[in-house]
Amino acid sequence: MNTHIVNTTKPGNTSGPTGRHNRLWLALAGVALVAINAGISYGIVRLNTPEVVVFGMKQTVDAFFDSASQKKLSEAEAKILSERFNRAMEDSLRAWQRKHHALILVAPAVVQGAPDITRDIQQDIATRMRGTP
Fold first, then answer.
1. Phi, psi of 53 (to 5 degrees)
2. How do residues 36-50 score in pLDDT, each as one tens digit?
3. What share of residues in the chain are helix, strand, coil (percent, to 5)?
4. Reported CATH class of domain 51-131
5. How many helices and strands (H and E) does the chain possess?
6. Which of 34, 104, 105, 125 is the most buried (most CB within 10 A)?
7. Where are the domains of the chain?
8. d(Cα 120, Cα 116) in Å, to the nearest integer?
């Protein structure tokens, strides 16, 4: 008696044990690829999203005008001092924003939850005002 084992599966048939195994690995590889892409996307978003902080502009400007009103200044001197203050405040905010990759909002625009940088900015403005002729 001649007994021959005949392979009845066709070359493209994936219904056997080996085919299921391959499909499982392909599915796992697909899931892993999606997970890696999600992780990379999350990292990119985290790196590019600016920190949101609050600055009390009204409080800062009011403090400046209170201080300036106590000095005996002519109209021209008051104008020069106001311009120096405005330039110092803008430069301070711009520098802080660049250094910290932040979005600075005025205090009334934020109800709660954002760090307040008012004190830091006021100290920097004072330093710039002392150093600016």
1. -130, 165
2. 999 988 888 878 888
3. 65, 10, 25
4. alpha beta
5. 4, 2
6. 125
7. 16-49, 51-131
8. 9
